[in-house]
Amino acid sequence: MAPDEHNNNERDRRVPDAVFPLPPSRPERVWAPSVDLLVTGSALLSGCAGVQSALDPHSEQADTLAVLFWTFTAVLGLVWLVTMAGLLLALTRRRDGRGESAEVRPAVKRPMLVAFAAMLASSAIVLSGLAVLSFGGQRTIFGSGAGAALTISVIGHQWWWQVRYEGDGGFETANEIRIPVGSPVDIKLTTADVIHSFWIPSLAGKLDLIPGKRNELRIEASKPGVYRGQCAEFCGQQHAHMAIFVVALESREFERWRADQAAPAKPMAHRRGQGVASAGSPPPAALSESSR
Ligand SMILES: [Cu+2]
Fold this sequence. Notes:
Immunoglobulin-like; elongated; 39% helix
């Protein structure tokens, strides 16, 4: 008996098929592009709308940011396509085999110089255009000062938002800001501990809350509704739960709510049965208002 045959027989005795059965043969998976595309497309598109999306703007500031985003995406996407096409052309183009560089061939040198100058000029034009657009957008996004209908202080804490309505009859809320629709509101941002970042994607860009400093942001909702925000700077273990809701109300409804908040607190007996709001969950009253 040959040595290999002996070894095979030994292995067969030690490893019977009953102990290690062969896996059943599986039918080859057929790629279903329609299902895959549907799932991927749905996942991508779900990020383009909703209560927390920079691509679903509901204010002038967020509109400006969305326009900047789509303009940059379109222009830079086009630049990428042209660059890839040029690269592909350079890789696949046949050389004449003489091995001479462009510098020693006058017939090639001039077109190369023209192409180089065109690329340099187009890069300068594209970058300058995007820079002008970007700086122009900042004037809208960070415009503040005269004309604000309301000033609110927001103080970041680990891990909640303290909201203080300034002026006569001032009051405080937690994790919820109510504003009148169509009126500019200035928000002063400070922090009581570490760096946080205030971001309501549907209403404005993000702005950091930095210890020892005060930043200001203007928001103006163009439509009533509830807009979710999120701390956008990692600030500790519960950072992911540090949410805030902006509730945009019609002017009359806002004034009624504001007067109610500024009034002396009612005895607890009248408030029995009402829940306590916490960071990460939308205000029940606000949601019922928005679903009307
Ligand atoms: Cu945070």
